[in-house]
């Protein structure tokens, strides 16, 4: 069994953990700060949307990441399954014509309901 490999990207700017011995979906875990994100674009295969992200300078050889729309939904909305609502308005159960202030309030209420204190 191989051991985990930890690679520091740069001092204070994150790390990349490789877990070759695990049978998980992805053998890599990246912890870094994102500096810039582009607008979502449809992938070449016509499937999910992709977002290009640029890591802050000093991240070593790793400069750019492409994140799928699914990964972003799971991270920010806490959605793990495909049967969950596909957009923020459906998730919060609010109208698409809601004001920004009311949208923030609906988001905070959802965080309280889910037990997320951030």
The gist of it:
This protein is α+β, with helices and mostly antiparallel strands and 118 residues long. The chain has helices at residues 69-77, 88-92, 100-114; strands spanning 5-8, 15-18, 28-31, 34-37, 41-42, 49-55, 64-68.
Q: Number of DSSP helices?
A: 3
Tell me, what's the shape?
A: elongated
| Proportion of residues in extended strands | 25-35%
**Major beta-sheet overview:** 4 strands, antiparallel
Q: How many strands in all?
A: 7
Low-pLDDT stretches are none
Helix and strand element order: EEEEEEEHHH
Overview of this structure, please?
By secondary structure, the protein is α+β, with helices and mostly antiparallel strands. The protein has three helices and seven strands. Strands 4, 5, 6 and 7 form a four-stranded antiparallel sheet that branches. It has a three-stranded antiparallel sheet with strand order 1-2-3, with no helix packed on it. Strand 6 and strand 7 form a beta hairpin. The longest helix has 15 residues. It is elongated.
Structural features:
118 residues; alpha+beta; four-stranded antiparallel β-sheet; 7 strands; 25% helix; 25% strand
Task: Describe how the helices and strands are arranged.
Elements: E1 5-8, E2 15-18, E3 28-31, E4 34-37, E5 41-42, E6 49-55, E7 64-68, H1 69-77, H2 88-92, H3 100-114
Antiparallel strand pairs: 1-2, 2-3, 4-6, 5-6, 6-7
């Amino acid at each position: 069994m191989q051991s985990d490999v930890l690679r520091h990207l740069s001092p204070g700017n994150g790390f990349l953990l490789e877990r070759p011995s695990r049978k998980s979906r992805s053998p890599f875990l990246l912890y870094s700060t994102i500096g810039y994100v582009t607008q979502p674009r449809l992938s070449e295969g016509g499937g999910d949307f992709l977002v290009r992200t640029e890591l802050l300078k000093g991240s070593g050889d790793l400069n750019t990441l492409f994140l799928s729309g699914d990964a972003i939904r799971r991270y920010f909305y806490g959605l793990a399954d495909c049967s969950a609502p596909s957009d923020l308005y459906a998730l919060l159960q609010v109208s698409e014509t809601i004001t920004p202030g009311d949208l923030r309030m609906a988001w905070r209420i959802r965080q309280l309901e889910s037990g997320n204190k951030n």
